[in-house]
Design a protein that fits this description.
By secondary structure, this protein is mainly α. Helices cover 62% and strands 5% of the residues.
Length: 595
């Protein structure tokens, strides 16, 4: 038996398996950091200053391990997948593990909508629900979640929505890979683009929301169109009919679940039609027809009411990208994390421009991705979408931008058909340039990865509601009879929309500034007048919690001292009586004699 080659074989096995070492070490550091992170007293930097320092070491080790794994094109792509999954765990599972309650007031709002569907058992009109009827006119996501709650046998969606950011991020992985593999076989480029996408996707639409699922379906439609409706992907009429039917199903799921995503999908498909490779207009036509069919039937009541405001905002780019009163970050932490987020997005867009300029072959062969990156920009002229349009545009630009940003970090990339052309022309073999790396690309990738946490979790002080706050609000709605009114400074508290179908909600910081000033001048008297119309057996409550204080302070609404002065006025007024109090807030009821 010849044993002379055993050391060489052992060396090859060790070389093939070394990526497991930094990956395992990074995950171990992350687990250590999660167990020792203290979130009882969050400051204006959110999780950035609360997380244990080992978390940052885990991110750095994970990024370096990924870079030195993906830079070897012959290494099995399973290692790249393992590192990306590790990144998603560190990015999206940390909050689920360190916070005992779900984040984001909007997630709690969507839980209330699911609860309404389970309670009412049917969709209801604007006359019955007011502004909340918009969710009954786009019920796809909520109906699916109501069915899931029933199937899982849990009390509400709150039982699992803490993990939704991780789940919804995983849903994006397959369509992203399909899209990128349409234009390149270079595994370095594919996986680096996926990594850049995830670290730059900080805008916070992965929480328990219709947008999270609609965005995944949006990418699914684009993946089908790019792979099956281009010149090289076309098949027989029967197969094309199958793919067209799939697009109809996906487009219908989007149209009945979300207002904005169908419009983004239509402009993206229209942009693809500008290239000679995607002149088949069938996907665009069927998507537009599904969109119109839903909006002109089930969603028509909402659109009819909103149309005047939509017309006024059309073309007002400056107004549509501004945040307006009530959303201006204040305080060192809020301002710093906001700037980190802007710099992260700006850096990715800049890198994308550099990648498009440097990689000439990509400008030709991946032109559709450049068009997809630019396609959402006209939506800035359409509407402000509740002062969030600029964030949604950034998110929809990201799949294409991440691809070219990744290309800027690589020395030379390879596309489908380009390597064969190089060989025919006597050029270098495909892997000849694989090892020409400098320190700058991995440093840029590491900086972007580290910037994700402040961009994504830097405002957790206003997103996290401790168990005491949840218990306080839950006790309020457990006691509030039908026809009651809950008055609060802001909607940023858990269960803010609980029982919205039979309990009224009023947030005075949503009012004109003049009315807010009147409340500041005479808090108890003005609030009592606002609450006086409630008729028995309904009751009128004033609620102030730490979540409202955090949001007001960090977004430049009112200072903490101003809100405390309002509470003190209510607490000392004979018009109100204290109902409940704990460390997270207080509830006061308007006395019946004051109505």
């Amino acid at each position: 038996m010849d044993l002379s080659d055993l050391p060489a074989r052992r060396g090859r096995r060790l070389s093939a398996g070394w990526p497991a070492l930094p990956l395992a070490a990074a995950l171990a550091l992350w687990a250590f950091a999660v167990r020792r992170t203290e979130i009882s007293d969050l400051d204006d930097f959110g999780l950035v200053t609360a997380v244990h320092p080992a978390f940052w070491a885990a991110l750095a080790l994970l990024t370096c391990g990924f870079w030195f794994t993906v830079r070897e094109p012959r290494r099995h792509h399973g290692w790249s997948l393992a590192y990306v999954l590790g990144l998603l765990l560190v990015e999206r599972a940390t909050q689920a593990l360190v916070y005992p309650t779900p984040l984001y007031a909007w997630a709690w709002k969507h839980d209330a909508v699911v609860d309404h569907l389970l309670t009412a058992g049917a969709l209801q009109t604007e006359a019955q629900l007011g502004d909340m009827a918009v969710y009954d006119q786009w019920p796809g996501f909520f109906a699916a979640q109501a069915a899931l709650v029933r199937l899982a046998g849990v009390e509400s969606a709150a039982a699992y929505m803490t993990w939704w950011p991780l789940v919804s991020s995983l849903m994006l992985l397959l369509p992203l890979l399909l899209i990128y593999r349409t234009f390149t076989e270079d595994r370095r480029l594919i996986w680096t683009a996926v990594w850049v996408f995830y670290v730059a996707n900080w805008v916070g639409q992965d929480y328990f929301s219709p947008q999270s699922v609609a965005f995944a379906l949006h990418l699914g439609v684009l993946a089908v169109v790019l792979r099956r409706f281009g010149r090289s992907g076309r098949q027989g009429p029967r197969r094309q009919a199958v793919w067209t039917f799939l697009i109809v199903v996906l487009a219908a799921a989007i149209a009945i679940s979300h207002q904005l995503t169908p419009g983004m999908l239509i402009v993206s498909l229209a942009a693809l039609c500008l290239t000679r490779r995607y002149r088949d207009v069938a996907p665009l036509l069927v998507t537009a027809l599904v969109f119109l069919a839903w909006n002109l039937t089930a969603a028509l009541p909402f659109l009819s009411a909103a149309l005047p405001d939509m017309i006024r905002s059309f073309g007002d780019v400056g107004g549509n990208v501004s945040t307006g009163y009530g959303a201006t970050p204040t305080g060192t932490g809020a301002i710093a994390t906001s700037w980190v987020a802007r710099l992260l997005s700006g850096s990715v867009l800049l890198l994308a421009a550099v990648g498009a300029l440097r990689q000439r072959v990509l400008r030709r062969r991946a032109l559709p991705l450049l068009l997809l990156a630019a396609a959402p920009l006209p939506m800035l002229a359409a509407n402000d979408y509740g002062s969030e349009m600029i964030f949604r545009v950034l998110m929809f630009m990201l799949p294409g931008a991440a691809f070219f940003a990744a290309a800027a970090l690589l020395p030379r990339v390879h596309t489908l058909g380009a390597d064969a052309a190089d060989r025919n022309a006597g050029g270098p073999p495909p892997l000849a340039t694989a090892k020409r790396f400098t320190l700058l690309p991995p440093a840029a990738l590491l900086a972007g990865t580290l910037a994700f946490l402040p961009s994504y979790a830097g405002k957790d002080r206003l997103s996290y509601f401790p168990p005491q706050e949840v218990d306080l609000v839950q006790s309020l709605f457990d006691e509030a009879p039908e026809g009651s009114l809950v008055v609060a400074a802001h909607r940023n508290y858990p269960l803010a929309y609980a029982s919205y179908w039979n309990v009224g909600h009023y947030w005075f910081l949503d009012d004109d500034r003049s009315h807010v000033e009147r409340i500041l001048e005479r808090p108890a008297a003005t609030l009592a007048a606002d609450m006086a119309e409630v008729k028995a057996p309904g009751r009128a409550y004033f609620l102030l919690t730490d979540g409202q204080l955090a949001n007001s302070e960090m977004n430049g609404l009112l200072t903490g001292s101003e809100l405390r002065r309002i509470e003190k006025s209510v607490a000392t007024s004979p018009l109100f009586e204290l109902v409940a109090r704990n460390d997270a807030g207080a509830v006061y009821e308007l006395r019946r004699t004051a109505r």
